[in-house]
Design brief:
It is a single chain. By secondary structure, this protein is of the alpha/beta class. 31% of the residues lie in helices and 29% in strands. A six-stranded mixed beta sheet has the order 6-7-8-3-9-10, with helices on both faces. The longest helix has 14 residues. The radius of gyration is 21 Å and the shape is globular. It comes from Bacillus salipaludis.
Length: 290
């Protein structure tokens, strides 16, 4: 399978929310990483046919998705950043309703809903009304509805918002498990969501795709610019003003700063192994020093 994005743009008034993005995607998990306003959600909406591009094309196996129509939507699962629910529907009834909209036959829908309620750990809440659920539980229902038709393309926009750490790990493992025979697009600003499962990471900034690499290659590009610096309490504001300080660790032996800098921030600084959080701060540092 191949999902191809060709010079895709979306303009709202005088703002280019997505600006000339091109990429080829095949089976596996792709993590779209970017700060709020980077264009991730707008791109996801176009890939899910919720929004039409101003210019450019999206093709699936060589065919324009706008011409495919329902044939494309039949292989698509989509969890938007904000999903609407019927408050008086039970969890089970809501999923049956979405299954009917997707054209899934009754017997298949019953089996699929039961399976997915187990997968998202909501079987014991199946008779609870949607309006009574916590935000995290509603998000899990959203994940289940996106998987109802066993999609070949799964698009999830900030899927772990509202989930506790255990649920986030469960969801990441689920994506990794199902990604062998489908294309999974995961848009997030939580780097741990994609650190271990992404085949490639696509970094978006100001509507543009600025990097598309494997996690290993991306980390290799910044391996010499992350530093550990011992510091006194009084020195912290000066370091924050001059550098990107990713972490302030107070340990029994003293304060240790984690700094992202292309120049050595202090004589006592030593390079340390990098992670995706460092990568995120390298590209998206707004407010880090505050």
């Amino acid at each position: 399978m191949k999902l191809k994005i060709n010079n895709l743009s979306k303009v709202f008034g005088d703002k280019r929310a997505v600006d000339g993005v091109s990429a080829e995607l095949t089976n596996g998990v792709y993590g779209f990483l970017g700060a709020n306003g980077s264009g991730k959600t707008t791109l996801m909406r176009m890939l899910a046919t919720v929004s039409r591009p101003t210019s450019g094309t999206i093709t699936f196996n060589g065919e324009d998705i706008t011409k495919m129509g329902d044939r494309y939507r039949d292989v698509l699962g989509y969890l938007p950043q904000h999903i609407g629910y019927y408050r008086n529907f039970t969890v089970e009834k809501f999923l049956y309703y979405i299954a009917s909209l997707k054209g899934i036959e009754k017997n298949e829908a019953q089996q699929r809903v039961a399976e997915l309620l187990e997968i998202v750990n909501l079987h014991d809440k199946r008779k609870v009304k949607m309006g009574k659920l916590s935000g995290g539980m509603k998000q899990r229902v959203g994940i289940a509805q996106a998987l109802l038709n066993d999609p070949k393309i799964l698009i999830v926009d900030e899927p772990t918002a509202g989930l506790d750490p255990k649920e986030r790990i469960r969801f990441r493992n689920l994506l990794a498990k199902i990604a062998n025979d489908r294309i999974v697009l995961l848009s997030t600003h939580i780097v741990s969501d994609i650190e271990y499962i992404a085949k490639e990471i696509l970094i978006m900034k100001n509507g543009q795709l600025i990097k598309k690499e494997t996690p290993r290659n991306l980390l290799g590009q910044i391996q010499n610019i992350v530093w550990s610096v011992p510091a006194e309490e009084a020195e912290i504001p000066s370091f924050q003003e001059s550098f990107k300080v990713g972490n302030i660790a107070r340990k029994p032996e003293g304060i240790e700063l984690r700094i992202i800098s292309e120049e050595k921030p202090a004589d006592v600084a030593v390079n340390v192994p990098v992670n995706l959080e460092d990568l995120y701060l390298y590209y998206f540092d707004e407010g880090v020093g505050a």
